[in-house]
Amino acid sequence: MTLRLFVSLCLCVTLALQAQTVAFAGSEQVVEVNPVVRDGKLYIDADVDLDVTGDLRNVAQKGVPIYFTADLRIVATRWWWFDKVLVDEQLTWRVVYNALTRQWRIGAGELSLPESSLDNALSLIRNIRGWGVADIDKLEPGQEYYGRIRVRLDTSLLARPFQIDALNSSAWSLETPWKDFSFSVSADSRDPS
Fold first, then answer.
1. Residue 19 lies in a domain
2. Which of 20, 78, 180, 188 measures 20 to 30 Å from 87, CA to CA?
């Protein structure tokens, strides 16, 4: 009887530790979102916990470009119809390793910056700053706006063989859950509060 109790207790502890490991394995999340008004535009600043490990890191170190996309949606609620979508934007980064120069490059659009390591290159994605998403003229003072943001590995931009592999492997499904936030623009300062 004591042996059974001991074995079942060990089994419960083992299962609890495995469940905790699985919970920490998918720890990607948007930690903080700050809407900021400057120079007549609404900018989004966000901090993201994002770790590239395993197969994805190995593929990137072999020189295959990987793409990350931030999806943002800001709406104004209406009682009489569907919510009014004010912002539906995407920002995509390309991270690639050049084995000849032993240098990482990260780019958003035409801008490409050199970095010394993958973690340094990912810091641009982990700390989104100054993403201009809307003119302040589109926003009404005093009205509450609701937004959602997420960051994901964009497998649709990968080379075709990796797109097929991405369907079959969980290592290629790197994505944060949607992070909800709300803000309003004051009439005086036109800064989000």
1. no
2. 188
Question: pLDDT tens for residues 115-145?
Answer: 999 999 999 999 999 999 999 998 999 899 9
Identify the sign of the CA torsion 139, 128, 54, 115. Answer: positive
Return the sign of the alpha-carbon dihedral for residues 112, 116, 121, 127: negative
**44 falls within a domain:** yes
C-alpha dihedral sign at 25, 108, 47, 157: negative
Amino acid at 37: V
Domain ranges, residue 69? 28-184
SS3 47: strand
Q: Is 74 helix (H, G, I), strand (E, B) or coil?
A: strand
179 Cβ contact list (under 8 Å, min separation 6): 29, 30, 33, 46, 148, 149, 150
Q: How many CB atoms lie within 10 A of CB 136?
A: 15
* Burial status of residue 77 (CB atoms within 10 A of its CB: 0-12, 13-18, 19 or more): exposed
Asked, for residue 75, whether it belongs to a domain, the answer is: yes
Looking at the domain assignment, is residue 35 inside a domain?
yes
Number of domains in the chain: 1
Q: What angle do CA 137, 142, 148 make, to 5 degrees?
A: 75
Distance CA 102, CA 81 (A): 54
pTM exceeds 0.85, yes or no = no
